[in-house]
């Protein structure tokens, strides 16, 4: 779909089954099961979705999915559905090759968002997109390189060192304009310096929620996952972004919703609510 000066596409990069209790944190199952159906093991199916932004001479990928480097054991452990869709094949659907990607914005370095940024070769990992600049928040990079015990598994499933050794890493400091009409905004509740991409448009800007609002079921501020590291920081910043979304008619892009890729929001009686799904 056309947003501002850019064509935007949703890439379906796979599925995983996660524990419903973890996915909804403090929300009792009695409530969340009305929004998400769980199997007999209490597992809920979610997507891993990336955003492709093409225009102004740039081909920008926002997040890269699980990728190809995870072991069979890791995939089984995390409920990742095998086979994982082939990123090259997905891009070829838009007549794009991996070598043509100019920028990769990694919202954060949890393996379900950034695993596809590198690939294994006999001599070690290399950048999957050899000609791209990879934009990562420096605080996020720091945490991934020296992870806290709580976050260790989410980062260490993938070896990102190649991004630095191949000189393709561009460390960012906070919110900024990436290029004309494309803004980076930062949040801290899910993980330190998670970045969101806002594609500007006069009428309907597009906002890549990443794990700030992973699915439509997570639109209420207090409905957040147990993976969020700093819930007390998450509340005000999520509220800030949701209000901004309603005020400015943002289309919210949900990376993990099993069905709804994107939607607009509206003010509800208590919280912000889902308004209209937007088809991509
Ligand atoms: Zn995450």
* Shape-level CATH architecture: 4-Layer Sandwich
Strand share of the residues?
25-35%
Please give the domain count.
1
Structure annotation, total helices: 9
Strand order of the largest sheet: 1-2-3-4-5-8-9
CATH fold descriptor: Metallo-beta-lactamase, Chain A
Task: Tell how many strands the DSSP assignment holds.
Answer: 16
Poorly predicted segments = none
Q: How would you classify the helix and strand content by structural class?
A: alpha+beta
Evaluate the radius of gyration. 18 Å
What distance lies between the first and last C-alpha atoms, to the nearest angstrom? 6 Å
Description:
This protein has 280 residues and is α+β, with helices and mostly antiparallel strands. The chain has one domain (2-278): Metallo-beta-lactamase, Chain A (4-Layer Sandwich), CATH 3.60.15. Helix content is 21%, strand content 32%. It contains nine helices and 16 strands. The strands form three sheets. It has a seven-stranded mixed β-sheet. Strands 10-11-12-13-14-15-16 form a seven-stranded mixed β-sheet. A hairpin with an 8-residue loop joins β14 and β15 (262-267). The termini are close together. The model has no long low-confidence stretch (mean pLDDT 97).
Topology:
Blueprint: E1 2-3, E2 6-19, H1 20-24, H2 29-32, E3 43-55, E4 58-62, H3 72-77, H4 87-92, E5 103-105, H5 111-114, E6 118-121, E7 124-127, E8 133-137, H6 138-145, H7 152-156, H8 161-165, E9 169-172, E10 176-179, E11 182-187, E12 194-199, E13 206-208, H9 231-247, E14 251-253, E15 262-267, E16 272-278
Parallel strand pairs: 4-5, 5-8, 8-9, 13-14
Antiparallel strand pairs: 1-2, 2-3, 3-4, 6-7, 10-11, 11-12, 12-13, 14-15, 15-16
The structure holds zinc ion.
């Amino acid at each position: 779909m056309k947003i501002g000066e850019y064509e935007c596409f949703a890439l379906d990069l796979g599925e995983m089954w996660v524990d419903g209790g973890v996915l909804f944190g403090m929300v009792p199952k009695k409530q969340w099961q009305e929004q998400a159906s769980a199997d007999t093991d209490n597992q809920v199916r979610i997507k891993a979705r990336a955003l492709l932004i093409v225009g102004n001479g740039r081909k920008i990928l926002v997040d890269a999915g699980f990728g190809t480097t995870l072991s069979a054991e890791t995939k089984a452990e995390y409920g990742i559905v095998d086979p994982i869709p082939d990123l090259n094949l997905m891009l070829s659907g838009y007549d794009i090759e991996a070598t043509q990607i100019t920028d990769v914005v990694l919202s954060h370095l949890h393996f379900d968002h950034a695993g596809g940024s590198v690939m294994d070769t006999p001599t070690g990992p290399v950048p999957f997109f050899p000609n791209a600049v990879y934009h990562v928040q420096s605080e996020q990079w720091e945490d991934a390189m020296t992870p806290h015990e709580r976050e260790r598994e989410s980062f260490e499933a993938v070896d990102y060192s190649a991004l630095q050794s191949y000189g393709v890493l561009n460390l960012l400091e906070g919110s900024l304009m990436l290029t004309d009409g494309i803004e980076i905004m930062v949040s801290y509740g899910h993980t330190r310096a998670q970045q969101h991409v806002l594609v500007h448009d006069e009428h309907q800007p597009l906002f890549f929620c990443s794990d700030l609002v992973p699915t439509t079921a997570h639109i209420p501020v207090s409905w957040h996952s147990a993976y969020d590291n700093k819930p007390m920081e998450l509340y005000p910043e999520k509220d800030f972004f949701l209000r901004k979304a309603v005020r400015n008619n943002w289309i919210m892009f949900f990376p993990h919703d099993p069905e709804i890729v994107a939607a607009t929001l509206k003010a509800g009686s208590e919280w912000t609510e889902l308004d209209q799904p937007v088809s991509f």
